[in-house]
Amino acid sequence: MREMVELLKVNSPIWVKSPTDEWCFIDRDGYNRNFSNANRLYNKSSTARFESSKDCGVVPMTAIELIQNFLDPVKWMNMFPTIVTKARIIEVLDTGNLGGSIQLMYEKVHILSPLVGSRDFFFIRCCRQIDPTIWIMVDVSYDLFKEIQSGALPSHSWKFPSGCIIKEIGIGQSMVTWIEHVQVDDLNQVHHLYRDLFCRCQIYGAKRWIVTLQRMSERYNFSIGAIYPTRHDLEGVLTDPKGIKNVMQISQRMVKSFCEVLSMKNQLDFPTSTQLNSRDRVSIRKNEEITKSEGFIITACTSIWLPLSFQIVFNFFKDYKTRPQPYVPHENNMLILQESNIDEMGAFIIYAPIDLQTTTSIINGDDAKEVSILPSGLIISPDGRLALNKDICENVSNGSILTMGFQQLICANNNSISHQQHNLHQEHMRQRDTIQNLSSTALKSKQH
Question: Which residues does the UniProt record annotate as the domain START (predicted)?
Fold first, then answer.
């Protein structure tokens, strides 16, 4: 806790600003001098590295609301659905009646693409109220399996004191300063497309946590009726508050579900998949999402570099006039529920088909908890490469990484499962070729 307070100081000499951009990182020598700890565990592997970053921003929630969300693992996952895929409390060590809390937790974080490996942490989370307007949350890894005695880390990721300080600034808002500080040994698991993002701490860095927290706090306020924007995608379409709440709940579940399946741990190589390359992933799992059908769900995913900014790619797919140019499968008598978002860290477009009868039920305010969804979508991020000449362009280069994933249910009562597998593979190949053609066209346009 004391270490976090020092790291959060504005003029702390331990922080060094990158000469190429505004990214701040911890100076290792200064850190070791100021926070010496004989019991601290380091990974001695030559491939291990440190990641550290700090960022701040105004969040439209009070400090106590944020702390309540941080201490509940379900709310924690819902607050960061595009980052945290699993979380649970292992043991509560101190309740403190909201004056503070200490608990042992587990979380799995994963974002962007199956080409990026997930990270698992067992850690102690400590929350304390510093004064009437300031709270602090600190996470630090804990060796649950007593592997320190063997001199080995329990995972590829180890969390040094990380977390945030929350200062209420009135009118339901808080200033949140976030710190991420980890030692990891997972670069060999990362596809080369994402190496630059990793090296600049953009994938799991503090800015991504802050930006996501801001977006989800606004969404939370909207869902409970605390705010109602004058201009919103639902305006003029839904007027019943229950219908609006239903759509938002299903949409959030859709986004969370899609981000969870992106890890694609149970990968398969179909006999017909000889054309799959290092960017393609195919996985299969037993159907637990579509409650009325037995069978398996196939997920196919590919990532590709595009010589365009992520804003341009997002606008291309968001625009209903240009989006049909890539081939997108659809079914008759189905509506599409879609959520899209763009911020400085990247963008996503996630959608799922919903039949007309279910849609009507949702809009009328019926219970939406049992509505089955099978989402597909696009994740778009900057490629993390800096412009070679900062005098010409101060921003990140105009390249982006597009990850496309789609899912299909293969019913157990269908006698032509092998035929469906073949069709799925062909569908995946067609969509991948479409995106590659888009990339080639974009590159030619830039050259001209």
Answer: 1-222
Give the residue carrying structure tokens 């982006």: 400
Q: How many helices (H) and strands (E) does the chain have?
A: 10, 16
Q: What's the CA gap between 49 and 201, in Å, rounded?
A: 11
* Concatenated DSSP letters of 26-59: E-HHHHHHHT--TT------TT-EEEEEEEEEEE
How far apart CA 68 and CA 154 sit, in angstroms, is: 29
Name the CA dihedral angle for 360, 361, 364, 369, rounded to a multiple of 10 degrees: -130
Contact 401, 193 (CB under 8 A): yes
**Residue 434 neighbours by CB under 8 Å, 6+ apart:** 326, 327
Lookup result for tokens 């960061």: 80
- Contact yes or no for 405/388 (Cβ under 8 A): no
Residue type, 233: D
The secondary element (H helix, E strand) that includes residue 338 is strand 334-343
Give CA–CA dist 99/82, Å, rounded. 29
pLDDT tens-place string over residues 5-53 = 888 886 778 898 877 766 788 998 888 888 887 667 677 777 788 899 9
**Dihedral angle, C-alpha 253, 186, 14, 128, nearest 10 °:** 40
pTM of the predicted structure, to 2 decimals:
0.84
